Amino acid sequence: MPKVKRSRKPPPEGWELIEPTLEELEQKMREAEAEPHEGKRKVESLWPIFKIHHQKSRYVYDLFYRRKAISRELYDYCVKEGVADANLIAKWKKQGYENLCCLRCIQTRDTNFQTNCICRVPKSKLEEGKVVECIHCGCRGCSG
Amino acid sequence: MAMSKSTNTYNRQNWEDSDFPILCETCLGDNPYVRMTKDKYGSECKICMRPFTVFRWCPGARMRFKKTEVCQTCAKLKNVCQTCLLDLEFGLPIQVRDNALKVKDNLPRNEVNKEYYVQNLESQIKNSDGTEPLGEVGKAQAPSDLLMKLARTTPYYKRNRPHICSFWVKGECKRGEECPYRHEKPSDPDDPLSDQNIRDRYYGTNDPVADKLLRRASAMPVLTPPEDKSITTLYIGNLGEFIGESDLRDYFYQFGEIRNITIVPKQQCGFVQFTTRSSAELAAEKSFNKLIILGRRLTVRWGKSQARQSSAADGGVALPPVPGLPGALPPPPIPSTSGVNYFNIPISSTLPPPIPFYMPPPPLPSSSYTAASSSTSVLPGAEPPIPGTERPLPVYYPSQDPTRMGAVQIKPAP
């Protein structure tokens, strides 16, 4: 949960069912933030943050769009409270982006040749036996 | 010194701004669609310390990114690649190239002198068309035998591989499979080759690679002619698929009359038989270790003796014997200067003098070669044999053999 004070409005119905999981992920996030950077590469330090952020959004996305276990109100509430990343979820709804790792990896403006990240290259298109680990979020391939 | 581009002062040091790098084939890599980034005034030249345009690219899959290291003026001055500092024509270190061409470059090392020198060069570049190398290299003579022997004919892409992972060497690399660096045992640190620096390489002083190449050149094997004087055949190996009989004939006719050329496509080799021993010896001397046809370095060896060749039947085509002939004739007498010359004919006069070494390998400049060939006049007797007339006959008739008909050999009086 974000550290800022939540809105006064009481959370919608079903919040107490998803709260423990989100609390757990939030705890993990706090640990990742406090983790020392020693022994890590420069780019590596942010990888766990991206990973947990992805996990949180994915949890809410799965509950609402896949399993249809939570109500529209609760989903909207989660997005509004910053539990789920609406921009990332918007991408997951598009074909070919179902497993997208993070938004930086499809930001072509940030690369030299206006390309996507290496993790966006399908495994079949990569050369045989090549292991990739993208520098943005440490993704090892999120495109099938 | 005014280094800002906006202040226009007289005699200001020029910063290089180029559109295309000067690179060798190896540094560019095998991908014809290479993408490069260009960084205007990206860093200082490692030789002249002036800012220059840095190009950066990946020379193919599983290669490390490369970038230009010296500015174009410094590269043009020595006719070298901007990245690897190896000669653009021969792919050899500067020290080796200068040694072989007998070029002595006295580049100023002092900072002020260097600036003045470079400034003069820049004005020279502006006046020239940019096709000829500047400095002493441009004035050098035709390439020497040493360069031909040492030169690389094909790109050596292993040079572009990633560096060895220093963490892995210490046993600390945690990246495992994903590590883009090479997980290999490094070469011995005591090896002189592992201690190189770009300035020494550029100025051609204590370059360990050059030392190694020059040592290798001095220890290069020589092809000794076999004892058996009847051998006039040369073995030509590493022909590949595209070099045919005509290519070999085009090259070897300059050394003397060719009796026969046999190509064995399966082994990718061929045999060139000369009519005389002297021309075969000349050909062997002129082409051993430096014969490059169509960009392929060919191996040249002496052929086996006639007797062994016929028994092994590996050399040429096994010819069916002509029926009804008496036994094989004795081999032609060996020409020797010590033998009695009955007709007072100088042996050399019967042979066309060899025209100078000429061949068209792609990486070589044509200008230097044409200069070499025009320096010696070609005698009218040295006309190339008409290709149609020298076709190997389907059946071997000793009576049609040119040497046995007394065309070239001096026969002892009956």
Automatic annotation (TrEMBL), chain A:
Family per similarity comment: Belongs to the BUD31 (G10) family.
Protein name, per record: Protein BUD31 homolog
GO cellular component, one term: spliceosomal complex
Main localization (coarse): nucleus
InterPro entries for the chain: BUD31 (IPR001748), BUD31/G10-rel_CS (IPR018230)
Keyword terms of this UniProt record: Nucleus
Native source organism of the sequence: Allacma fusca
Pfam family, one: BUD31
Compartments (UniProt record): Nucleus
A single GO BP: mRNA splicing, via spliceosome
Top-level taxon of the source organism: Eukaryota
Keyword Nucleus applies: yes
TrEMBL record, chain B:
ZnF endpoints (C3H1-type): 159-186
Annotated C3H1-type domain residues: 159-186
Molecular function terms, GO-annotated: pre-mRNA binding; U6 snRNA binding; zinc ion binding
Signal peptide: none
The organism of origin for this protein: Allacma fusca
Region feature (Disordered): 178-198, 366-414
Family membership noted in the UniProt record: Belongs to the SLT11 family.
Record field: compositional bias (Low complexity): 366-377
Superkingdom of source: Eukaryota
Domain RRM: 232-305
Compartments reported by the entry: Cytoplasm; Nucleus
A Pfam family this chain is assigned to: RRM_1
Listed Basic and acidic residues bias regions: 178-188
Keywords annotated in UniProt: Cytoplasm, Metal-binding, mRNA processing, mRNA splicing, Nucleus, RNA-binding, Spliceosome, Zinc, Zinc-finger
Any one annotated GO CC term: Prp19 complex
BP terms from Gene Ontology: mRNA processing; RNA splicing
Name of the protein: Pre-mRNA-splicing factor RBM22
